[in-house]
Amino acid sequence: xxxxxDDKLLQQMLYDPSRREEGFRMLMRQYGRTxxxxxRRIVVGHEDAEDVFQETCIKVLGNISSFRGDGxxxxxxxxxxxxxxxxxxxxxxxxxxxxxxxxxxxxxxLKAEAxxxxxxxxxxxxxxxxxLPTQQRIVxxxxxxxxLSYEEIARITGKSVNTLKTNYHYATEKVKSYIKEHSx
Length: 184
Hints:
- The protein has 184 residues and is mainly alpha-helical.
- The protein has one domain (2-182): RNA polymerase sigma factor, region 2, helix turn helix motif (Rna Polymerase Sigma Factor, Chain: A, Orthogonal Bundle).
- Helices cover 76% and strands 0% of the residues.
- It contains 9 helices and no strands.
- 28% of the residues are buried.
């Protein structure tokens, strides 16, 4: 079903300029929430996620003609969103050595945005994810939350499947270790 819908949306956006915006709105209705939460898991804060989501929408709308169709439209959207989120983190990290050094800053943002009804286990899990290097966290999120295959993640990140499997394995071990240490 999604493939036919994706093809229809692409046809509207690429070959019918009068319906381009309508096609884009349909695209965002179908995938916008998924892409927003993907971005949010990378940048953590709602306001930052909103900003990155808007930048992603602008990039998608402006570059839809560059979609080659070698993967699904959703995979392409993930790639654009991931690149925009990483670019956002790089801009934030300009005072630091790397985006991986933003872990404490992101953890503080998570703490500030944690709702009162969040249970302790969820907060511990989220903090565990923020201790991961950025690339491991992205792979973990795409695999754990979005349930994407390694092949799909490879198309999104440009990394090899074996590298992704290794990153996911190490991320899982680090998360388990963090949870064990902080759940006592």
